[in-house]
Amino acid sequence: MIRRAIVSRVANIGMAPLVICERKGRWAADWRRLAASQGEGWPRIRLVEVRTAADCLSELDRAPAAFVLLECTQESLAARLRLLDQIDRQYPEAICAAAVERVGEAWHALLREFGAVHVVGSPLGLLELARMIGRRGACGEPPDEPLRERIWARLPWPEAAGRRGGGVSRPS
């Protein structure tokens, strides 16, 4: 219980929002219901509901490290796969999950192949998503520095290249 409270408190500090992209609002309602029943152990994260892919991308422009839950139905699967791919390319800090109903393992594998880190098949599946969000919150918010710059700063050769007089230049 103490660990849950610590994770919850840490997760409250400056965490990126959870963007739920769905047509009817069912998954967002399930999230709120579970949050109310779980109390302190649930990550305190700002929930943003959107209905279209364009609105989802707009939210990611505001918070590129957001958590995204995409509702996938038989009718929307192809469009959601394209959206997952676009998010993966344009917002590498974002973490995407998918919410599906009554589909087989083939969908799960396909969604994961396109970038979903988790596939939720029922409201109780949101519990695992909440744990993932809590773990990321406990690790802290990703820095504002772009991913490419953070990687470059951790590589050993910029200093070595400077000592040798060149060879490797910093990306622009």
List keywords for this structure.
disordered N terminus, alpha/beta, globular, about 170 residues, 2 domains, Rossmann fold, 8 helices
Account of the protein in words:
- By secondary structure, the protein is of the alpha/beta class.
- It folds into two domains: 2-141, Rossmann fold (3-Layer(aba) Sandwich); 144-172, no CATH class.
- The chain is built from eight helices and five strands; from the N terminus they run αβαβαβαβαβααα.
- Strands 2-1-3-4-5 form a five-stranded parallel β-sheet, with helices on both faces.
- The longest helix has 14 residues, at 77-90.
- The chain starts with a helix and ends in an 8-residue tail after the last helix.
- The relative contact order is 0.15.
Short description:
By secondary structure, the chain is an alpha/beta fold.
How do the helices and strands line up, and which of them pair or pack?
Layout: H1 2-12, E1 18-21, H2 26-38, E2 47-50, H3 53-62, E3 67-71, H4 77-90, E4 95-99, H5 105-113, E5 116-120, H6 126-139, H7 147-154, H8 157-164
Parallel strand pairs: 1-2, 1-3, 3-4, 4-5
Helix pairs in contact: 1-6
Q: What is the approximate shape?
A: globular
For the record, what is the CATH homologous superfamily label of the largest domain?
A: Response regulator
Mean pLDDT across every amino acid position: 80
Predict the CATH topology of the largest domain: Rossmann fold
Continuous helix count: 8
Tell me the structural class. alpha/beta
Percent strand equals 5-15%
Order of helices and strands, N to C?
HEHEHEHEHEHHH
First-residue to last-residue Cα separation: 47 Å
Low-confidence stretches: 1-13
How many structural domains are formed by the residues?
2
Report helical residue fraction. Answer: 40-55%
